[in-house]
Amino acid sequence: MAERDDLPHSSGPAGGWGSMKGIARIFGETWAEAGALDTLRRQNKTKGHMCSSCAWPKPANYKPFEFCENGAKATLWESTSARCTPEFFAQAGHRLTELRDWRDHDLEMQGRLTHPLRYDAQSDRYVAVSWEEAFAAIGDRLRDLPTESVVFYASGHAGLEASYLYALLARAYGNNNLPQSSNMCHETTSVGLKKVLGTPVGTVTWDDLDKTDAYFFFGQNPGTNSPRFLHPLKEAKDRGAKIVTFNPVIEQGLVSFVDPQNPVDMLTGRETKISDQYHQLRAGGDVAAILGMCKVVIEADDAARAKGEAEVIDHAFIAEHTVGFDEYVDYCRAADWAEIERESGLTESALRDAARIYMQAEKVIGVYGMGLTQHRHGALNLAMFANFLLLRGNIGREGAGACPVRGHSNVQGQRTVGIAEKADLIPMERLKALFGFDPPTKDGMHIVDAVNGLIAGEVKGFISLGGNLLRAVPDQQRMEEGWAKQDLTVMISTKLNRSHLFPGKHAYILPCLARSEIDMQASGNQAITIEDSFSMIHGSLGRRQPAADTLKSELDIVCSIAKAALAPNPKLKWRDWVGDYALVRDLIAQTYPDDFHDFNARMWEPGGFYRGNSARERIWKTEVGKAIITTPERLSVTGFEDKPGRYRLLTMRSNDQFNTTIYGYSDRFRGIEGTRDVVLMNPDDIEEAGLRDGQFVRLVGDAEDGVDRRLGGLKLIAYTLPRGTVASYYPECNVLISIDNHDQLSKTPGSKSIPVRIEAA
Ligand SMILES: Nc1nc2c(c(=O)[nH]1)N[C@H]1C(S)=C(S)[C@@H](COP(=O)(O)OP(=O)(O)OC[C@H]3O[C@@H](n4cnc5c(=O)[nH]c(N)nc54)[C@H](O)[C@@H]3O)O[C@H]1N2
Ligand SMILES: Nc1nc2c(c(=O)[nH]1)N[C@H]1C(S)=C(S)[C@@H](COP(=O)(O)OP(=O)(O)OC[C@H]3O[C@@H](n4cnc5c(=O)[nH]c(N)nc54)[C@H](O)[C@@H]3O)O[C@H]1N2
Ligand SMILES: [Mo]
Q: What's the whole-number mean pLDDT along residues 11-29?
């Protein structure tokens, strides 16, 4: 258990005045428009707009200010008074090849994009174009390109209505090339959790949080990435629940918290200690750590039953609901502690302590994030996570369950309404009946396929509904070369980013409204809907004046592209749908009646309406009809051998970023200020490598595939990390990751265990 005072680099609790200062700084720097604070007040409330940051639930019993540092920053960022107009691109030094030297932060700080833009190759600049001209040209190009060579990417922002129509556009165009940001994120959950529990999403609901006895956190960082989670965690601690964390990095939000919504706590600085135990395991060491805990549970169960005492394992549940138990138990009994300790980086005694809390808790919630999903064998991590919960029947009971914490605010919902590259996930027959065309039945491209297709020159057209794919994917350098060779790139965006700077032969930026803004159409201001991490569907209504009167909504842009590119079909009523989004919700309800019946009537239910979850009802939609207990075939999920001079690099998010959007250079929870160009490393490792704290180093990819990958100019910082694990920031490190280093089941890139060497620079 690490104590706060031992931590050389963490500075004060999560929440508290620090979070207020963080928000105030962004407010100042973005010169957010008058009215932005008013917008914040309506955030996440019924008939307000839903935060465009993360996918954390928006409960019905909201607090007076139901937003967090993360959400406030995201809203202020889109409410900036700065505008990135066509004049920006005309200025000296702003040719695209010149802008490629700019930092991500400086690109987005230019403010909201205002006009549709076309790339002019001769001047190497974007120039203004009318909407009509842009759509007509995009339609022409799409009609000319081979159908299978075009990709329709989505980042998890756009609402259910625009997303449903976007997927319809791709299928009416003729392919299922619908990769999404979750391909780099929770695809491991969509595929791996589904394989063992039969559900592609989490099983807990908001009410479960109030009832659990213990949380086990594996590789999820609530303080930075889902700060509103800190409130239920504090409440859990106040009523005596326990929290156990497994994370190579000490994350302040999992150490202590001051509730910014509690005046007494704020004035007295009263902190709540969050984790009862904090286990700094090696990156990629979770399988071994969970194995160790399961071994202890099995041992305790054997002993209890031998003495005729109450069993520790829920044998009735195991017998009725699972397969694979006996083989797993034999495996755990035979497992060697020395190997478990070596692979996890934790001691037997630490794992026994953790297992004790697990066994004492009647109801356990397991929480996880990218620390489990982004590895070469990430799906194995999830299988072990499921084993752990299943042993004591912690799925399908009140106060217990699996809680994957999702990323973008509507990332889960976009999948629910059809943005999926796998054809068998889609009710194609219903689409055919509704719209009178034959939807494609061949699987489309996953992000990994799309990147490989770009590198190989096979992808010729790319439409991006939000996001910054070029900066978010592995093998960035190779990807940039492939991206620019395309015939057509279309970016539907709110802010300028690196993906705009490598235009295809025909390239367009189409600027869209943000979620907090008024979306006026023929039938009035349009609401949209989103789905959160807990499968709750919420309505969202923007009320702020749009950043420019030249902007169009995402839904309008999708429909306009469709109209320009596709042959007329009286059942594809793109223009009518733009006029009234309720019509689109009716289509969603007809396509997915179980989840979305009476959609328009239910969308304003306070706290959202629940889509339901089969595993929660102990209905197991797996291949065998039961939950699957998995015997692991390996203990390390990295997919590479350890050897001298090779380290496991984990890429991390700072407290001052949302993915590739860099708000600033203050990662205050980790005590890193003014720069992101750093590598964190254990002090003994630094000494052994003959390096010194504070010197500049270079990271070199060690994938042994013949590709040279390197990133220099990084300051080495001695940090409390396990030996052999080093950490540095995403997205800067993406040049170091091979696109082939991905989860074997779901193809999620392995961004949390990358083989690297370190050289003095
Ligand atoms: N402020 C902010 N909020 C965000 C985002 C953002 O960038 N900024 N991004 C959004 C998105 S898209 C997503 S997907 C989520 C991501 O949110 P998280 O899932 O929290 O993702 P990360 O911060 O990348 O990594 C989570 C944690 O995993 C730990 N970790 C790394 N390797 C391992 C390992 O091998 N084992 C274990 N047990 N832990 C490990 C890291 O130290 C880190 O604390 O957040 C969303 N919310
Ligand atoms: N090494 C490493 N790589 C990673 C990760 C990691 O942990 N490590 N994490 C992965 C994860 S979890 C994810 S989800 C991906 C993220 O990948 P993406 O989703 O592609 O990237 P974002 O940074 O979220 O996209 C930011 C851009 O979205 C646009 N945008 C913002 N708001 C809106 C809006 O409302 N509408 C529209 N149309 N556009 C908008 C803006 O132009 C902004 O520049 O990155 C992945 N890459
Ligand atoms: Mo994500």
A: 70
Q: Whose CA is nearest to atom 21 of ligand 1?
A: 370
| Alpha-carbon span 457 to 476, nearest angstrom | 15
153 C-alpha to ligand 2 centroid (Å):
11
Helices (H), 31-127: 36-41, 69-78, 86-90, 96-99, 104-108
Residue 363 clears pLDDT 50, i.e. is over it:
yes
User: 26 CA to middle of ligand 1, Å?
Assistant: 22
CA 660 / ligand 2 centre spacing (Å): 6
Closest by CA to 473, choosing from 750, 190, 757, is 750
| Band of pLDDT at residue 74, cut at 50, 70 and 90 | confident
Q: Is there an atom of ligand 2 within 6 Å of 660 CB? A: yes
Half-sphere CA count of 466, side-chain side, radius 13 A: 27
Q: Confidence class of residue 4 from pLDDT cuts 50, 70 and 90?
A: very low
In angstroms, what is the span from residue 84 Cα to ligand 2's centroid? 19
Q: Are 473 and 184 in contact (CB under 8 A)?
A: yes
pLDDT in the model for residue 477? 84
For a ligand 1 pocket test, name from 104, 221, 654 the mutation site with the most ligand atoms within 8 angstroms of its C-beta: 221
155 Cα to the center of ligand 2, angstroms? 6
DSSP sequence for 493-516: ESB--GGGGS--SEEEEEEB--TT
pTM over 0.85: yes
Mutate to test the pocket of ligand 1, among 225, 380, 403 (most ligand atoms within 8 A of CB): 225
Arithmetic mean of pLDDT over the chain: 93
244 forms beta bridges with: 216, 277
Residues 182-186 have a mean pLDDT of: 97
**Burial of 79 per CB tally in 10 Å (0-12, 13-18, 19+):** buried
More confident residue, 490 or 7: 490
Average pLDDT over residues 294-314: 98
414 lines ligand 2 (CB under 6 A): no
The rounded distance, in Å, linking the Cα atoms of 546 and 78 is 10
pLDDT of residue 56: 83
Strands 627-628 and 242-246: unpaired
Distance (Å) from CA 652 to ligand 1 centroid: 7
Quick one: average pLDDT of 749-755?
97
Which atom of ligand 2 has the smallest separation from the CA of 156?
19
Alpha helix stretches (DSSP H) within 421-518: 428-435, 447-455, 469-472, 476-483
d(CA 244, CA 275): 6
Mean pLDDT of 426-432: 97
Least confident of 148-157, 203-212, 253-262: 253-262
Show Cβ contacts of residue 122 under 8 Å, excluding neighbours closer than 6 positions: none
Ligand nearest to the backbone CA of 404: 1
Q: Give the nearest ligand 1 atom to 289 CA.
A: 38
369 C-alpha to ligand 1 centroid (Å): 6
* pLDDT, tens digit (0-9, with 9 covering 90-100), for 191-216: 999 999 999 999 999 999 999 999 99
Ligand nearest to the CA of 510: 2
Count of alpha carbons within 13 Å of 199, Cβ hemisphere only? 26
Nearest ligand atom owner, CA of 180: 2
User: Which residue ranges form the domains of the chain, and what is each CATH number?
Assistant: 83-180+417-597 (3.40.50.740), 187-405 (3.40.228.10), 647-760 (2.40.40.20)
For 26-49, how does the pLDDT look when each residue is reduced to its tens digit (9 = 90+)? Answer: 666 666 666 777 777 777 777 788
